[in-house]
Amino acid sequence: MFNLIRRDVILQKRQLLLFIPFILFFIIMDSHPALTFLLASLIIPFNTYVYDEKAETNILLNSLPYTRIEIIASRYLGAVIYMVLAIGVTSLALFAFNKLFTITDIAIGSGLFLLFAAFIFPLFHIFKPGYIFPIVIISFLLLASIGPAIMTFLAEHLTAITDFIVNLSVPALYTGATLVIVIVYAISWGITTVIYQRKAF
């Protein structure tokens, strides 16, 4: 399974050359650090899915001595590994440009990435090739544009839940948010595995 994760990096050597300029652009434009961490984390995992979609790599992968469970596991574990590496590189870049950021920025960026990945990864195996990339872009733009409005609406109308969250201590809040994100990611992993096992190539 490690070889499947390493394959993604080997296949994207050219795209990785654009990684640093991409990150530097957002840093120079003075984007919020959490957004920069989020975008940096998205590059490799989503490029991998888009590349595999165009090259119909799943046909080849299923002819190799890997189970379908291992193939999906490599995607989900690989996404976490690439997220950690992307956060490390982005942190160094922010430090080099004297841009301030906090652990909270990293937590928000990585949390949003895992939630977005949990929502999008199953869709790569539901929709036909050629349709998923526009869906990813539209989904990301929708979440970025209406996400804050939805959170504000829920905060105003679900006051009992809002009061409960406000009264939580910072460690309890972080622990709860981490637990929710891990559960959502695990559920997505399970759903994607079931979809992939039933899919015909």
Secondary structure blueprint with pairings:
Layout: H1 2-11, H2 13-17, H3 19-28, H4 33-55, H5 57-61, H6 68-96, H7 103-120, H8 132-157, H9 159-166, H10 170-198
Helix pairs in contact: 3-4, 3-6, 4-6, 4-7, 6-7, 6-10, 7-10
Question: How would you describe this structure to a colleague?
Answer:
- It is a single chain.
- The protein is mainly α and 201 residues long.
- The mean pLDDT is 78.
- 81% of the residues lie in helices and 0% in strands.
Distance between the first and last residues' Cα: 20 Å
Number of helices: 10
**Fraction of residues in β-strands:** under 5%
Number-wise, the strands total 0
Q: How would you sum up the global shape?
A: globular
The string of secondary-structure elements, in order, is HHHHHHHHHH
Q: Given the helix and strand composition, which structural class is it?
A: mainly alpha
Helix coverage percent of residues? Answer: over 70%
Low-confidence stretches: none
Largest sheet: none
Radius of gyration: 18 Å
Determine the mean pLDDT: 78
Q: Quick summary of this structure?
A:
The chain has 201 residues and is mostly helical. It is 81% helix and 0% strand.
Descriptive labels:
mainly alpha; 201 residues; globular; single chain
